[in-house]
Amino acid sequence: MAQLRQDYGEFEKRSTLIIVAGPENAKSFESYFKKHDLPFIGIPDPKASVLKLYGQEVNLFKLGRMPAQVLVDRDGSARFVHYGHSMSDIPENSELFELIDSINQEK
User: Is residue 80 part of a domain?
Assistant: First the structure.
């Protein structure tokens, strides 16, 4: 999430809404978001409803949910999906910006 926060302004410039779903309950999730002053939307997902919807992997040997990033366009279609194999396996923001710019140019 630090990577997303670092370039949040660049996502905003591209009219990109960031939504983070996590395994914590609502109270824990809200506390974490407030403590770290995160500027994006957080959705608690303790029953893994969102996880199952997008096929996100859970690996108990690697501390739970593996990272997943999904770019959904304005029509609701998933245009890019990346499932990480470790907590550090996430695309660079620059790669996401290129994809977002490409999608926005199509519209």
Answer: yes
Domain of 82, CATH number, reads 3.40.30.10
Whole-prediction pTM: 0.78
Structurally, the chain folds into a number of domains equal to 1
106 within a domain of the structure (yes/no): no
**23 or 14, which is more confident?**
14
User: SS3 sequence, the chain?
Assistant: CHHHHHCHHHHHHCCCCCEEEECCCHHHHHHHHHHCCCCCEEEECCCCHHHHHHCCCEEHHHCEECCEEEEECCCCCEEEEEECCCCCCCCCHHHHHHHHHHHHHHC
CB 39 within 8 A of CB 33: no
